[in-house]
Protein 1
Amino acid sequence: MDLTFDESYWSQRYATGRTDWDAGAITPPLRDYFAQLGSPDDRRILIPGAGKGYEAEYLYDRGFTKIFVADVAPEALQALQARVPSFPKEHLLLQDFFRLPAAPPYDLLVEQTFFCALPPALRPAYAEQCARLLRAGGTLMGVLFDADFGPRSEPPFGGSREEYRAYFAPYFEFVHFETAYNSIKPRQGRELFICLKKKIGSEQQ
Ligand SMILES: C[S@@+](CC[C@H](N)C(=O)[O-])C[C@H]1O[C@@H](n2cnc3c(N)ncnc32)[C@H](O)[C@@H]1O
């Protein structure tokens, strides 16, 4: 993990309330995707860099049973636990995404403002780790900023769909990779909705 943005950096941002990424609720692109998943089941869902975990809360309230959130900032996980005391403690993973074990594999990974929080040099490793954590045919879905934020010394870091495509193409089939139509207002036109399926055999790459 890049030491510039380690646990203490993120903890500090929560402690000082510099959490401008936090929408305060599940956002429509993720909510609408989850709504069409059908009846709740025991598929293994991972939300890395989950922050306060509004997506986890939404899925848990709908009856999904195996939702895991991973974050390096204890404050983030504590916020979810405080809002949803019955959320299983063993599903709150205070861990570096890049060190999460691949077994047992996940069926679904959910992305929102985690990719843009990572130093851009880690983007190829993010795509590789997502593929490692998913079963063959598993899904990585969510939103990525499709916007140039200019040179920056701290997150969020922008980028373009052309750049991102190159990271994911070795491991994933592209089901959706287009501008989201239902972003929250400040992100309208600047978010890419992604739904990628892990290729069979891509773990050998
Ligand atoms: C910009 S915030 C986004 C939080 C949440 N996804 C949201 O949309 O509200 C990025 C989050 O990723 C976490 N994070 C950063 N690097 C991480 C890493 N290597 N592994 C796990 N979590 C990490 C931070 O603590 C922070 O909660």
Protein 2
Amino acid sequence: MIISCEKCGTQFEVRKNEIPKEGRNVQCGVCNATWFQKPFEKNKKNNSNHVSFHYFANFFLLCLILVSFVGIMETFRDSLLYNFPELDQYYKFVEMIIDRAFEEIKNLFSSFSI
Ligand SMILES: [Zn+2]
């Protein structure tokens, strides 16, 4: 971890085990100032992990909802198209997206196999 002198701002690299859980007094080797150094906070790292997990979970949920929606729309395609002919636009759009996705995957695989 890196700690910085509160007086002159000089930064020092210290090993994690050099600062105990309860903290300790340290002295700056440049200006001789002393201060109480608290241990490296794990919260920061945990928070960022938590945030990235949060985003991943949201993304996953969004994908799940999207796939469920498309699945439901596909299941009731015939009756939906019968009752709402304007949904034809939606199905054309989804087919285009799926076609493009498959095309991309095919390209990806063909580039790997060569
Ligand atoms: Zn200093």
